[in-house]
Amino acid sequence: xxxxxxxxxxxxxxxxxxxxALLPLLMMVFVLMDAAxxxxxxxxxxxxxxxxxxxxxxITGTQATAAGSDLTSMVKHSVQASANGLLGHLPTDAGWGNxxxxxxxxxxxxxxxxxxxxxxxxxxxxxxNIMQVSIQGFSLHPLVPRLFGLHSGVDNAxxxxxxxxxxxxxxxRDLPPIGVAP
Length: 182
Prior knowledge:
elongated, alpha+beta, 4 helices, about 35% helix, about 180 residues, four-stranded antiparallel β-sheet
């Protein structure tokens, strides 16, 4: 009787073990990549709205006139420029519509009343009003489509991400025109 060597009887075991180890490893790497992508996008949008608020609460009428613009448009440009291309680069890009700028008049001190939205008024950007900059409805698509099972289709659905920041408008003798808000 001929003896079969141990190496010949285990010839395909390494390939099978490699496959069993590689597939879960790849799935974990893809999940980590998608999670990192979502965290990057969320933090970038949060940074962009904070930059927009910082810019908006300090702009003067002289700066707006020199730029040939208004306060709301300058804030939206600042947000778009700080978003690292996630919102596009031009006002005609789709991301421009996701940027909202609202102006609120706070209640009188000691009052329990709610803030009043004064975005549609020409004096909505008065000193000590609140400027709120937000990104609403931004669709983040996954880097790697998700596959949950052999019998279900590939999931390439986007996730909606938003960011918001607000601050008081600083007093100024030279208020810029408010523009069209939100």
